[in-house]
Amino acid sequence: MPGSLNVRDLDDDLIARLKRRAARHGRSTEAEHREILRQALMTEEEAGFDDLAAEFRALTKGRRHTPAEALLREGREER
What we know:
This protein is an all-alpha fold.
């Protein structure tokens, strides 16, 4: 389902450069904006589960954690 995105507070110079670039490529400014976003995100790799888990462990390092089995047991006892 196509969505919509508004970008606010762009510098006038940036807008003018976008318009010139769009004209060079024979596209509307909006189409050029879409193409720039598509290209930028196409080259970005999605992080895999292992990478995300390692990042989460690093962010929560040193914090106290409740073991999953304790949470499961607690949930069962509440029923």
